[in-house]
Design goal:
472 residues, 1% strand, mainly alpha, Amino acid/polyamine transporter I, globular
């Protein structure tokens, strides 16, 4: 939500110090719940098409960029543990006005995530289970469901999330075992162990790899949520950094294994009946209709949970902006007197998700476009955090290098300057290769943010309002 700097300081002073009880592995587990172990599976068919059969390669490239960015998040969280978000790190480590624009770009992600889930669920149900029901009707039912549940104040509990994580893990482990068995029985060790998913000379193309990486990076969205727990972590300077890096590495390794096996089981992406639900076909090939339906159910349940949380988070952010009159208070600052829910905002999010799902459906490749629009704001935030890390550690603290041993100076040059700049460059390259629709929609949104902050700060002469993402 949005509050003045004085209010923020007063609030912090009035808040009692939290107990630091969370361990490193508590943070890692939390990060895995946020990302979900099936994160790359909904992307499989579309990413295979974009990369021309090299999805696993794009996952690993994105993992490299995300791991360096996670390192930057962890270092900034050690300095600013009270509010872990890209907005905070860029505002305090770089510039408040740039921080506001990063926050504005992040708001677009919140608004678009319900759209991503609606597109995938509607496309999959229409292609696999409800072919007789038109896509617009299925999309409407799904959006109406998440909107209605949020209006009623239905929330998923931590226990529900753990149960869902356990069920997803069981399905994934079953797939891995059955895929290994299928490959060994049908092709032997040469079928199981192959370099083809990483590199095929006949189809490898650098431009397509980078285009696909800009989509495949959606696998890692959410890893930065680990930093929001900084105040509750024992030894946060060490554990937050390690946890963010480990979450990215584990996601890349486990997701890469899932995708690798999927590529080996079904190497010819051209023959998928439907790209959005392509991994379900892979499951059917190795485990029959039972695994096909189990995977479909796990994916739909995961998308429902993500859609619910994303829609409510976006509604709460809009409420905070309305409450402080950044957006019109009568609409965005409204609370239902009975449920205490921001009902107008929940309805607005639902309408936007449905209109977007229908509009992208007419354009074609709806899931690809929706996912890349989310990455527009996410990678601007990642670039901002890497740059803020460089300024915070590489420039503001470089006076002490001369007094240290040469080996220590070299390490600091690498960790404080070279590494965050490499992270910035890789994130910028991924961002640059987003598709035209994502750049157009994101560019318009960012231009509106620039116009708003220019007027609000009287041409950058006063500080912009603060945005608190912790309640989203």
């Amino acid at each position: 939500m949005i509050q003045s700097s004085d209010q923020s300081i007063a609030t912090s002073a009035a808040t009692p110090e939290r107990r630091r009880v969370l361990t490193l592995w508590d943070l890692v587990f939390y990060g895995i719940i946020l990302i979900q172990p099936i994160a790359p599976i909904p992307l499989f068919g579309v990413a295979q098409k974009l990369s021309n059969g090299h999805f696993v390669t794009t996952i690993l490239i994105a993992m490299f960029a995300m791991t360096i960015t996670a390192f930057s998040y962890g270092r900034m969280a050690a300095i600013y543990p009270s509010a872990g978000s890209a907005y905070t790190y860029v505002s305090r480590g770089l510039n408040p006005h740039l921080g506001f624009l990063v926050g504005w770009a992040m708001l677009l992600d919140y608004l678009l995530l319900p759209l991503v889930t609606a597109v995938w669920v509607a496309t999959t149900l229409h292609a696999r289970y409800l072919s007789g029901v038109p896509y617009p009707i299925i999309a409407f039912i799904f959006v109406a469901l998440i909107t209605g549940l949020n209006l009623r104040g239905v929330k998923s509990s931590a226990r529900t999330n753990i149960v869902l994580l356990a069920l997803m893990s069981v399905v994934i482990i079953a797939f891995i075992c059955l895929a290994v068995r299928y490959l060994l029985l049908s092709q032997g060790w040469s079928g199981l162990l192959s370099a083809q998913p990483f590199y095929s000379a006949q189809t490898f193309d650098f431009h397509r790899i980078w285009v696909a990486t800009s989509f495949a990076a959606l696998t890692y969205i959410g890893f930065d949520g680990v930093t929001t727990l900084s105040e509750d972590v024992a030894n946060p300077k060490r554990n937050v950094l390690l946890a963010t890096v480990l979450v990215c590495l584990l996601t890349g390794a486990f997701g890469g294994l899932e995708v690798y096996l999927g590529q080996r089981v079904w190497p010819n992406w051209h023959s998928f009946p439907n790209l959005e639900s392509a991994f379900m076909d892979v499951c059917q090939r190795v485990g029959g209709s039972l695994l096909f339906n189990l995977m479909g159910g796990a994916l739909i349940a995961a998308m429902l949970g993500t859609g619910l949380a994303a829609a409510l988070g976006a509604a709460k952010l809009l409420f905070g902006m309305g409450r402080d009159n950044v957006l019109p208070r009568k609409i965005f600052g409204h609370l239902n007197p009975e449920s205490k829910s921001p009902t107008y905002n929940i309805l607005i999010i639902g309408v936007l998700a449905y209109i977007g799902a229908i509009g992208l459906g007419y354009v074609g490749n709806a899931f690809e476009h929706a996912g890349e629009m989310v990455n527009f704001g996410a990678f601007l935030a990642f670039m901002g955090v890497n740059l803020a890390t460089f300024f915070q550690f590489g420039l503001r603290r470089n006076n002490g290098w001369q007094a240290q041993a040469a080996s220590s100076v070299l390490y600091r040059v690498f960790a404080d300057a070279i590494l965050p700049l490499i992270g910035f460059a890789f994130c910028a390259l991924i961002w640059w290769n987003l598709n035209a629709i994502a750049k157009t929609v994101g560019g318009i949104w960012l231009a509106v943010g620039v116009a708003y902050i220019t007027v609000k700060t009287r041409a950058f002469r006063v500080l912009p309002p603060n945005i608190d993402f912790n309640e989203s």
